[in-house]
Amino acid sequence: MIELTHVTKLYGKVIGVNDFTLSLGPGAYGLLGPNGSGKSTLLNLITGQLRPTLGTVRVLGESPCNNAQLYRRLGYCPGGEGLYADVSALEWVRYLQQLQGMTAGQADKAAQNSLDLVGMSSAMHRPISSYSRGMRQRTKLAQVIAHDPDFLILDEPFNGLDPVGRHELTQVLLDWIGMGKSLLFASHLLHEIESITESFLLISGGRLLASGTAQQVHAMMEGLPNEIAMRCSDPHRLGSLLMQERVADSVRIAEGVLTVATQNPSRVFDQLPGWLAHTGMQVTEMHSADESLQALFNSLMKMHRGEL
Amino acid sequence: MGNVGAVFWFEWKRAWSGPRLMGWGLLALFPVFIIGLIRFTADQPPRDLWLGFLFALIPMLVSLLGALLSTTTAISSELERRSWVYLTIRPNGGTAVLLGKYLAAVTMVIPVALLGLSLAVPLSGVEDGFQVWWTFSRLVCLSCPAYSAIFLLLGVINPRRAMLLAVVYSLVFELIISFVPAVINKLTVQYRLRALLVKWCDITPPPEANTNVLALIGNSPPIQHVLVLLALPPLLLCASIFILRRSEFTSSAESDV
Description:
The structure holds two protein chains of two kinds.
Chain A: E1 2-11, E2 14-24, E3 28-32, H1 39-46, E4 54-59, H2 68-73, E5 74-77, H3 89-99, H4 104-117, H5 133-145, E6 151-155, H6 163-178, E7 182-187, H7 190-194, E8 199-204, E9 207-213, H8 214-221, E10 226-232, H9 235-244, E11 250-254, E12 257-262, H10 265-279, E13 283-288, H11 291-305
Parallel strand pairs in A: 3-7, 3-8, 5-6, 6-7
Antiparallel strand pairs in A: 1-2, 1-4, 8-9, 10-12, 10-13, 11-12
Helix pairs in contact in A: 3-4, 3-5, 4-5
Chain B: H1 2-15, H2 18-41, H3 47-71, H4 76-81, H5 84-88, H6 93-124, H7 129-157, H8 162-176, H9 189-200, H10 210-217, H11 222-246
Helix pairs in contact in B: 1-6, 2-3, 2-6, 3-6, 3-7, 6-7, 6-11, 7-8, 7-9, 7-11, 9-11
């Protein structure tokens, strides 16, 4: 599906991707790396937005640069927002499907179906400027699946989604994989990728540091702290609940943001929607500080350099 | 071509917003305001001077400014909004965006210039008003596509400095070099438009000024100028597409480095 052979991308004197060699067959893969690790550069190379300074990139057997045939089979959801504020989600997704080569009627139908699939059917006629961050994220996802591509590439798709939105998007992506389609999913959060796929690629400093399964990554992270920050309607009550349920090692609250230290982030993310529904509390924003991953990447970088 | 049509209609629909319509309205009414000021506050100028005013205000100012504002930022606006990647990840998406936006810009600027012209010519009170309107309409229809193609190319060459490049080009080439009595002025759109104006409107310069005027308008037949102006847009559009397909445009926010 993807073949990268000694790919290096230089921005002047700065290295974006460094001697990257990779061969992936069809399936679902998580590209895990801290911010600034080269994930987006790698995705830009795979989607043909950038050309490698050295090496070759092949996607579905073809060079991705200006490749119209490949773009018919590819769906890409970039990390940046990039939506038009003055049009509705339906108009925007329909426009992009027309660019994909559909007629106006086909594009309209495809846009409505995909917006319905991501839970945006009730708001799809409103201007995008009135959307929450989560709604914009769903709209971005709708444009990428509307033309039914064979291979999806997603860059930080969970950014800004609330727990319910994360759960729904996870289901959409799992259904997608279940249909036998391929997926490459970049994130700096382990649990996000873990909820979608077992296969990981760990990248840092523009290099492929390791690849493997979730268990192997967890084994590497044993004993390292995990932190999750949440903005919610009642942080004191939620913090207390998480301590009672013994999923949090410690909690701290500053400026309305609840920060939870936990050894078991997956349990927090799995069970949080149920607790919120039961108590009537609302979480409007959720981020993972993920110091554990940063520590892991630092260790892997040192191993890579031969310092460990 | 379907992709180009999609971009064209999408841009056209977005243009029907209050602020944009107000901008186009102001651009159309500016020459009318200036012509009105001249007509009602100064002595009535002779016909040839009126034609000079109309030429400076419509094909020079409205066409050039309208094209500059609507096509120069065709790429940079998408890069700044970070929407470029959504468009170029489609089959021939970049080319479709370029051509669709070009067509949308040209079909928006021409009616604006024609509206200004249709109001300004009767206001000026020139005797052969319809003949003047018809001549200037042809100049507008030749100048808008040519200017738009030039500014589109500049926007593709350097999207980050597109507006600066376009302003410098307008001032240096179209305003200064076009009036230099040398071969270089033949490279400008202004030279061609000016030559057509003089020929089509039968402007007769005073005998003592003939040599100087000849240097500014040349003695080529009008058809040559028309053919150059018609050939310019497709050539420049091909150059823009060629450069676009060889370029790497990603917003810094989408890149890790």
